[in-house]
Specification:
MetI-like fold, two-stranded antiparallel ribbon, 15 helices
């Protein structure tokens, strides 16, 4: 167990170092120098040269990279030219807003996907299975912006019972809860079908195993066979898939946040990229990679606990 954690920790550190260097290098060598990106297109040549000298941007990239790593580890994420403030003043609030969306969506996706996936897997090739499978494929195939526009047309324009934007501002008379309904619905519709199909495929495979047939022939009640033998084994493979959805729900909902003007992490990254805000891009990319690596490690650890063969090996 200690060796497992040591390897995964080393993997995390190595991945973050490699990714951070790639992000920093790409930011440095994109068209236009760093000082020009910071000052904007209307800065004079003299101003650009002064800032380049002041920030030491004419030094070797490796030296500047290690200085940047040291500043980042000390908690200094830089200054945002897009928001005219320290990155620390903007990124934590945006992450918190996105975590609210992600938490609500995750709390709906996990139980619903497990329930529908198990039901479909138990009734393979039945009408219920086909209905759930087709619905899962359809919802996953529809792009987020399309489902966002469609739901807005129904609930905002036609019925008029929900707000069209989710700015988390109650000044227009809409509660925070009502503003979260449509973004969460789009995220759930897009991601739910994929997880359902993973759970269904695993359940179908488990139901065909000899030990399930043996348990039935021994006279165990069907409910007991499903709950004690089939479900636990069927959840081993989808467990990692379910955890990896956290990465999408936190860092991959740029379209959802843009459609509903939601002040979240993804929208912050989009605005930072459009305005060439290097500090926002670098800090946001690091957080995105960190979340992806951590969820993968947690998934591996949970998979090891659920699967005795992996644990004992």
């Amino acid at each position: 167990m200690i060796g497992f954690f040591a390897k995964r920790l080393a993997y995390l550190v190595f991945t973050m170092l490699v990714v951070s260097f790639i992000i920093y290098t790409i930011s440095e060598f994109t068209p236009g120098d760093v000082a020009r990106k910071i000052l904007g297109p209307f800065a004079t040549k003299n101003q650009v040269e002064l800032l380049t000298e002041e920030m030491g941007l004419n030094r070797p990239v490796f030296i500047r990279y290690f200085e940047w790593v040291g500043q980042t580890l000390s908690g200094d994420l830089g200054y945002s030219t897009r928001y005219k403030t320290e990155v620390n003043n903007i990124i934590w609030g945006r992450l918190y807003n996105t975590m609210i969306l992600a938490s609500i969506a995750f709390a709906i996706i996990v139980p619903a996907s497990i329930l529908f996936g198990i039901v479909a897997g138990m009734a393979e090739a039945s009408k219920l299975d086909r209905t759930i499978s087709v619905a899962s494929i359809v919802t996953t195939s529809v792009p987020e912006f399309a489902s966002g526009v469609f739901l807005s047309w129904i609930f905002v324009i036609w019925l008029g019972i929900l707000p069209g934007t989710s700015t988390l501002d109650t000044g227009a008379g809409w509660s925070i809860a009502s503003q979260l309904v449509l973004p969460v619905a789009v995220m759930v519709l897009y991601d739910l079908g994929y997880v359902i199909r993973m759970v269904r495929a695993s359940m179908v495979e488990v139901m065909m195993r000899p030990y399930i047939r043996t348990a039935v022939l021994k006279g165990l009640r069907f409910r007991e066979v499903i709950l004690k033998h089939a479900v636990r084994n069927a959840m081993i493979a989808p467990f990692t898939v379910i955890l990896l959805q956290i990465n999408y729900l936190v860092t991959g909902v740029v379209v959802v946040e843009a459609v509903f003007a939601y002040p979240g992490f993804g929208r912050m990254m989009l605005e930072g990229a459009l305005s060439q805000d290097i500090a926002i891009i670098e800090a946001g990319a690091l957080f995105a990679v960190l979340i992806a690596v951590v969820t993968q490690i947690v998934g591996d650890f949970g998979y090891m606990l659920l699967n005795p063969r992996i644990r004992f090996s």
